[in-house]
């Protein structure tokens, strides 16, 4: 039942926050920003839903004051990878498809006397914010619903970039440099092709980040293929063969989501991508392995494939300082927006300047963001479609700067862990 104005002012000012979708190295910095700002702005209890909206439906939540006891814990949380509260991939049905489900959600919110609901996530999570805020408006509920951006894929509309992307890009670029050094050390009188598989279903932002490995002492990858462009396997074979005539070691970066002209994912050529999640997304894996086998058979050279897999989203020891700070900033901005009466919005990052780099938090209607994807512009890819341009480099380079040193214990980074007791 919706609260009326007379009870809203006497109720405890509580807030609830959840995390959803694929984790990142800095998603917990956004959680820390939510918690710290909520306490500073006078919210009574800050609840954390366990495993997002899916866990919330089972009434799984904790009082974050039982988990975060000091400023030191907040700093530790900012350096902790993965989703501290647990994540989920749960698709809310449409408002008219299951009204009973929405009634259940709002009955729990009312029971906890929730004033603001904040969800940290990507495109699918913003769809959840959109549906809940729409339902609240239609039914007269007073809770505020705000989205906090999170995705290493960097594919959310209207925001200059997303928290999590800079750190993943930093890890990918550093790892690419190390792989190149490793390959060169073995490239003596033998031809070898190394294929790197990077996350990115429809957007190639992360794969393009491998180009950052091109520095004064490193040539960087030789070829880069993004999912925004159709993958021509014949051109790929020809170009790789030409490169092998000139050098012993060839490094190629591919997005997991590259597709052929007929619409098939390259990974499907080896029988992959059978699993489909609740949002209809095929699980993509094996793209690099297939292409390595293909080149080995066609060119008779040694090949190897490397999947960065979950490492690219969980490597908090390589997190960018810019990324951690911006993740914290947007978490706090969501609380501020809700406290000032906004709902059905997502916080965004606005780029103010590149040199020196500066950014600020903005806010946009979530209806303009949910279910829309931001792709790499065609003009940021070269004419042949096998490398990215200087504009791409200039866009991404400020986002990987700086670091937060992990708190080390016995030579390993320490993390804040949820206490479920």
Q: What is the rounded Rg?
A: 23 Å
Number of strands: 13
How do the helices and strands follow one another from N- to C-terminus?
HEHEHEHHEHEHEHEHEHEHHEEHEE
Low-confidence stretches: 1-10
Q: Count of DSSP helices? A: 13
Helix proportion of residues, in percent? 25-40%
- For the record, give the distance between the C-alpha atoms at the N and C termini, rounded to a whole number: 31 Å
For the largest beta-sheet, the strand count, sense and barrel status come to: 7 strands, mixed
The CATH architecture classification of the largest domain is 3-Layer(aba) Sandwich
- Give the strand line-up of the largest sheet: 3-2-1-4-5-10-11
Mean pLDDT across every amino acid position? 93
Shape: elongated
CATH overall fold name of the largest domain: Rossmann fold
Count of spatially separate domains:
2
CATH top level of the largest domain is: Alpha Beta
Strand content: 15-25%
Structural class: alpha/beta
């Amino acid at each position: 039942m919706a609260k009326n104005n007379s009870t809203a002012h006497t109720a405890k000012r509580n807030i609830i926050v959840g995390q959803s979708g694929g984790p990142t190295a800095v998603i917990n910095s956004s959680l820390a920003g939510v918690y710290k700002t909520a306490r500073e702005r006078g919210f009574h209890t800050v609840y954390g839903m366990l495993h997002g909206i899916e866990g919330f439906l089972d009434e799984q939540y904790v009082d974050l004051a039982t988990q975060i006891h000091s400023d030191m814990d907040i700093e530790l949380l900012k350096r902790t990878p993965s989703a501290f509260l647990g994540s989920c991939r749960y698709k809310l049905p449409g408002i008219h498809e299951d009204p009973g489900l929405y009634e259940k959600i709002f009955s729990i919110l009312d029971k906890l006397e929730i004033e603001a609901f904040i969800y940290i996530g990507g495109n699918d999570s913003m769809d959840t914010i959109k549906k809940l805020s729409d339902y609240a408006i239609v039914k007269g509920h007073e809770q505020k619903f705000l989205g906090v951006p999170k995705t290493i894929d960097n594919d959310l509309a209207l925001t200059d970039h997303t928290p999590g992307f800079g750190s993943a890009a930093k890890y990918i670029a550093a790892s690419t440099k190390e792989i190149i050094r490793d390959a060169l050390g073995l490239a003596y009188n033998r031809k070898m092709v190394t294929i790197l598989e990077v996350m990115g279903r429809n957007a190639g932002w992360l794969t393009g980040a491998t180009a950052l490995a091109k520095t004064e002492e490193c040539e960087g990858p030789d070829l880069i293929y993004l999912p925004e462009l159709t993958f021509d396997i014949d051109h790929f074979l020809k170009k790789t063969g030409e490169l092998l005539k000139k050098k012993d070691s060839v490094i190629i970066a591919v997005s997991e989501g590259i597709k052929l002209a007929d619409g098939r994912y390259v990974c499907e050529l080896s029988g992959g991508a059978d699993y489909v999640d609740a949002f209809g997304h095929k699980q993509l894996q094996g793209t690099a392995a297939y292409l390595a086998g293909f080149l080995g058979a066609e060119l008779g050279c040694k090949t190897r494939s490397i999947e960065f897999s979950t490492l690219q989203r969980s490597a908090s020891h390589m997190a960018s300082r810019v990324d951690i700070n911006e993740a914290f900033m947007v978490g706090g901005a969501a609380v501020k927006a809700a406290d000032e009466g906004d709902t059905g919005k997502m916080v965004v990052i606005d780029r103010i300047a590149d040199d020196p780099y500066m950014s600020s938090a903005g806010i946009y209607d979530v209806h303009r963001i949910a279910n829309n994807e931001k792709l790499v512009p065609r003009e940021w890819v070269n004419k042949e479609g096998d490398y990215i341009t200087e504009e791409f480099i200039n866009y991404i380079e400020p986002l990987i700067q700086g670091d937060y040193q992990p708190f080390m214990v016995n030579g390993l980074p320490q993390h804040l862990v949820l206490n479920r007791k």
